[in-house]
Amino acid sequence: MNNITENIKTVFSSILGLFYPDYCQGCGKPLLTGEHYICVDCLTDLPYTYFNDSRKNIVSELLWGRINSLKKAYSMCYFTKSSQLQSLLHNLKYNNKPEVGMELGIYLAHELENAKLNDFDVIIPVPLHAKKMKIRGYNQSEKIAEGIRILLTKPIDTKSVIRKVFTSTQTKKDKVERWENVKDIFEVKYPDNLKNKHILIVDDVITTGATIEALANTIEKVPGVQISVASVAVSKKI
Ligand SMILES: [Zn+2]
Predict the structure, then answer these.
(1) pLDDT tens across 63-121, in order?
(2) In this structure, are 117 and 159 located in the same domain?
(3) What is the distance in A from the centroid of ligand 1 to the CA of 172?
(4) Strand pairing partners for 70?
(5) Together in a domain, 82 and 194
(6) What is residue 12's three-state secondary structure?
(7) Which residues form the domain of 25?
C-alpha cells in the first residue's frame, strides 16, 4: 500500500473512531490510535510473572513430574480475579473477542523469545470439543497460538489431536474431580504428524494443570515427542 492510501486509511479510521470508538477489552476506556483491543495502560499493568528472569517459575513446578517429556513451561502473567487480565480473558472466551487472544499471543511470543522457549517445531492449542467450538465459534487457545505464530513463524496443528469427550465446567471442581473429569478426554488422531517433534501446548489459563497434564500425557505416547507449555496466565492459588 502506498503512503497516500495509508494516510487516507488512517484519517478515515480516526474519523470513524470518533463515532464508533473501540474500547479496551481490559478496562473499557476508548482506545487511542495505534492501540489494538488492549490499551497501553492495561498492557503495562498486567501482572507479569517475569519467569524468564530466573524468578521462581510456578508453572514449571506445577507440571514437573506430571509430564515425563516436559522441556519447558512458561506463563506470561499471574491470574488474579477482578483484574484487567480477567476482563481480557473473559472477553476472549465468552464475549466473542477472538482478536484479544491474538493480541495476547503476540505479547506472549515476545516473552517466549526472551525465555528462549522458541525452539519448538509445532504449536498445539488445547483442543476444544467440536460441540463447544460450534457454540463459541472459535477456540480461544488457537487465537493465542495465532498471535504466537505471527512473531515466531511456527506452524499450528489443530488436526492431529482432538478432544473426544465433552466435559462440564471445571471451575467448581476440586483437584481430584478435575483430574477424573479430563484424564481420558483427548485422542491423537495422526501420530505420524507428531513423531520426534518438540511440541508447544498453548492454553489461556492454567489452574491446577489437570487439562494440560491430560493432553500432554496423551501426546507423549507418540515416540520421540518433547513437550513445552505456554499460557497467558497461571493461577497463583494452587
Ligand atoms: Zn485498558
Answers:
(1) 999 999 999 999 999 998 888 999 999 999 999 999 999 999 999 999 999 999 999 99
(2) yes
(3) 29
(4) 227
(5) yes
(6) helix
(7) 1-45
